[in-house]
């Protein structure tokens, strides 16, 4: 028997509702005391479902996802013939549910945060008032690998640099033992995962249509419309009917499915670097009818590969002359070049101070407490408590370059100790949070697994988002790493309408 609050840690530990995974007559036994109101109806429905039915639904989902091609490439992984491998991102049948009142707070906090990060980016590439005020040390910005001097003084419409932001949110116990949302990470360069949010919802509606007639779940299907509206709004002045394209590194990129999916959903062209060229400081794409001018590029290519005449000389993924056309105000790039300086993990600890500096407000969403190993006292504490902390490389991503102390071996801890000592500036540390968990349908039945949430925030003339986001789930028992590259899966996210 599992305590229900252990499994549904989205809920405070009120009452002793329990889940019994073994069945009697095919029905899982469920006791409803202690379940938060917004989960109650779904939990009662789930208790009536035979395990065999849920397994068949999962097999059906896997078959459809594979047939449609909803896969991601795994870098470094090879099949028996030595070729690169593609995998399905595991999809869990049990949704993550958030009530309208909680979402309203999250939405307000996300708008505040993304607005201030765009203010920060405009500032660092123009007047640098935050440096002059001594809020952030100059070397942490100007010496950051993601700072692009080529962006100094460049005009961007509406002063928006990060048009598409994916902010990673976790729910954990605060000092009072109550559940509270925290920002774990800001993703402002080329955030991915929104296609899985959309496909997970389509799959749930296909498999369980009755649930959507009995629950008021806010829709997400209009995201591509909002995205296209945002991209068109980012065009430079004078582009009356802007031509928008999605720039992909190509079919071998791990997120290629998403690039193709979003282009198709928006009804715009998917292009690679070789499809573009620059002439007289304007960008054109090659078409069967001749060159066509491009006004907005939704790029899914990292800065280093965008323009071989400015950044990495050997890159074949971008387009020579792109930065010159951008600087001249003849094309918009979404997200802007140089946005990475704002989502670097060494800058993350300063976001609450940014909110007060630029907006004169208190942060609505809190950061996770963070130790900056560049500071001697923080370094000393981190090295003394490695087995209890999560330590991250400031430039790391995808769950790589990270130590989860409580789950690490002695050797892994010692290896990380040496790495941190050799380069303290390259690491931050955070306490190991008691992340919320949600019932998840795994091989052994229904069991608790840790989750996070990535809402997608769109910034154009206005800031918009669909209600929800991508819930990622750590499928390994006890794991806190939800990234797909590390064995994580996804869930549909339900925001219940009032």
TrEMBL record:
This is Circularly permuted type 2 ATP-grasp protein. Pfam families: CP_ATPgrasp_2 (PF14403). SUPFAM superfamilies: Glutathione synthetase ATP-binding domain-like (SSF56059). It comes from Caenimonas terrae. Residues 95-474 form the Circularly permuted ATP-grasp type domain.
